Write the structure tokens for this entry.
Amino acid sequence: MALDQIYDHEEIKKMQLIQKLLNEFQHDFPVTSTPYVDIAERLDVDESTILELLQELDKKSILSRVGPVFRPNRIGVSTLAAMAVPEHKLEKIAGIISAYPAVNHNYEREHHFNLWFVVTAENKKILDRTLEDMEAKTDIRIMSLPMEKDYHIDLGFPLKLIDGGCSHD
Amino acid sequence: MNILATQQNSENYILDESDRKIISVTQTGLPLTLHPYNDVAEQTGLDVNEVISRMKNMTDQGIIRRSGVVPNHYKLGFKSNGMSVWHVQEEKITQSGEKVGALDFVSHCYQRPQFLPEWPYNLFAMVHGKTHDEVHEKVKKIADLLAGDNLAHQVLFSTRILKKTGLRI
């Protein structure tokens, strides 16, 4: 089914603009005093259109954020930690772990090691102390797997939002 | 600049007080305003031109990996998040990491220590897809690529996001 039978011209134009914004600026947000003027020039719309669109995407949680993505482990230290938590205790233990401000990601995963979280700290000493504290509070051993080497070449993520939803094939 | 050169630089670069101020106010994203770097300047007490030149410098040094419009992949339909973990022969780890890290469907690729005997996996690659099947297909592509250098692998799906913040450092 052709999209123009479902959506009007304005909506299609808007979706095309969103797709361009999300694809072409994933690793190319201008670091200049007028970033939106620069984007607007490239996309041939005015700067407030771009900003309002990003604000709308942000409100709908389609946007994670705009701005710098820092390389991990350069400012402080961090580790990927995992615990094998008995099923009936998972809710409680996950709550204890998430409550640490040093934890920025906490996922339940389908595995014997079922709780996976990232712990950050200013330095290794503080990180080790936090992990010990977590083990003492939960009475569960932590498997700590700090990053040794980063192999990813970060080119962003190609998205296709129109014509059959999104994919990055 | 190749990725390893970037890493080398970022390890040697010493962040000063002003860099740290900029990092602390931008790590969860820039404000969605017409002149975001002016806002950063105001919050850090630095001149806007200094903010911009420091952010460009941190990018050149590999501290900032990229500046971009970062979409929320989960909201865009990438509901399946598979952490694929690989036990790669020690002498083949660099070569394997570089191959997997270059794949466009891999969003993170890290070498991590083993945790024996329970955890032999030393290479982690995050794979996203719209469904579990799509993730499995991509994991199969990695398995084919690594062939005999891969001794064992698993994919751990997330069943719940318990905590996620923008702070990634």
